[in-house]
Structure formats: structure tokens, C-alpha cells
């Protein structure tokens, strides 16, 4: 019995000592090892902690792109990110070199935002970006099928949809043209299309969208010309076209945006034609100069807000990180709420698109000003979105 009691005493003492050693070891480890972070559910409060987002895009010498950058900067500030913008002169070769230089740098950003100068020619560089391990987001230029797996998500405009809005504007213009007592120069009416620049896919997409929206009641396209983005390029293109097509009759002009349309108006007026009376002009989206819509020399447009697109694009990037670096399959089209910016308190989708509401001003300057004056999108006026 004594032996058994002694054995039991020894065993108890050993157990006590083991427990003490374990407790001491646990306490020493607690002193040197970091406490594991407790996972938190996203709260929707975007805070990038000052991390960098690098944007690779064409030049802000274009008014739309300059306003896009302002919106992007505002969004980055709200979400506490540092925004670095690297610009090229609408030159894919230049953008390729800039990108290679940036991805070779020792410090990499939290994300890359890719706005290609040439959507097709830039695919090789986009592939290199995707191999860095840094999340890549494409903006503004539609994501090509072969690039789907190279980017986390797309954010910005849907130019095919914008072209469809332009087509709806043209159909409304033709109805009003005939109702005003004008005679169509051909079945469907003669139409001139003013595109952007060669290789810039947005222009091609807007032309395809336009033709899709009008396919059941097509126009007679008498000219389709690359015209650029601004008033001067629209004026030049239309001035060169008029001598060869005027004899056929010019009933309608469709421009990729208000820029070339406003220039075309000047060219038409110089040869004695009256926009809003003899010729009805429409575009897919507003841009910078709204004088054509204000005076009803342009019949209708759409509100693609450059600043809104820039803000939304960076917001998509910030929400990707806030919601656990996840995206939802499919396409999300942001609502065109009038009075206030919607709450984007959820993870982004693979495709994220801004609204482009149709705005028909008609042919009466008084009615045009009233239509523009009462328009609102996300709590801001037509001028807020379209003048910059």
C-alpha cells in the first residue's frame, strides 16, 4: 500500500509539473507570437489604407478623359486609396512601353486599372499585366472575349448599349422629321454616321449598337466616316463629306457623341442647311459642349457622365477589396436614379456598367432648355454631368 501511495504521489507531482511547464510555455508563446486577427464581416465602409491604384489610360487632353480622371480621383479619396495615372497619347505602342516599365518596378500597386489605347492591339500587354499577380480591372473599352480571364472585372460604359440609345434617338428624330412636314430623301431617310477614330473599339461598338436598334426600320446610310471625338474633328469630317453627298439629300446625322455632332452642325450651317429643321442630328452621349442640345439644333442625346464613370470605376475596385476580393458572375447595370447616388454596399459583378439615360430635347429651343433643366441623374443636373 505504501508503494502504491508513493507511486501515486510521484505521478501526481509529475502531472502538476507538466501542467506548470505547459502553462509556462503557453504564456511565453503568447508573449512572442502575434494574436491571430479575427475575421470581420464587410461593413461597406471603403478604406484602402492609402494603398496605390495605378491607372494606365489615354491622355486627359481629351475632355472626356480629363473629367473621368477627376471622378476617379474623387472616388479614390473617398475610399482612401492613392491614385497614380499614367497617360499615353492614344498610342498603344507608347502604352505598352509605359506598362512594361511600371510592372518592372520593385513596388507593385494594390491594383491596375487598364484603359487600352487600342483594345485589340493591347491584348499582349494586358496579358503581361495579368501575370503580375496584381488584380487588373479594365475600364471604358469593352472587354474582349479573349481577355475575360485576364481581368478581375470590367467597369464603365457599355458602348453597344450607348449605340442602341443613339438608335432610339434617331428613330424618334425620324418620326419628328416626318411629322414636321419634311420629306425623306429615300426610304428610311438618308443618314450620315460620324465615328470616333480607327482602332478605338468604342466607336465601332456604338455603330453596331445603332444599327442593331434600327434594324427593323433601317436608315439609308449614305456615309460612315471616322471623325474623332471633338467639335473640330466633326466639323472637318462633315465639311469634307458634304460636297459628295449633298445632292443625295442629308436627312439625319448620327454621331458617336455630341462632340462631332456639334462640329457637323457648323459645317451644315455654312452651306445653308438648318440643323433642327432641314437636317436632324442625334448622338449616343453628351460630352463637354451642350450648346447643340440647348439650342435644339441637336434633337436628342444620352447622358454618359465622364465623372460618374471615373467615380464608379474606382468604386468597383475598392468594393472588390472590401468584400473579400470576390466578384459576382454576370452584368450589373447601375440604376439611373434621379435624386441621389445609389448605395453600392455589395461586391462588384464581373461586368459593371453605368447608366446612359436617353434625353430627347426636340426642335424647339424653349422646350429643349426645359427638358435639360429638369433632368437629374444621381442628384446632379444634365449640365453637372455633361459640361466640363
Automatic annotation (TrEMBL):
Location within or outside the cell: Cell envelope
Gene Ontology CC entries for this record: cell envelope
Signal peptide from the UniProt entry: 1-39
InterPro entries, alphabetized: Peripla_BP_I, SBP_2_dom
GO molecular function: carbohydrate binding
Membership in a protein family: Belongs to the bacterial solute-binding protein 2 family.
PANTHER family reported in the protein's UniProt record: D-ALLOSE-BINDING PERIPLASMIC PROTEIN-RELATED
Protein name as annotated: Substrate-binding domain-containing protein
UniProt source species: Nitratireductor arenosus
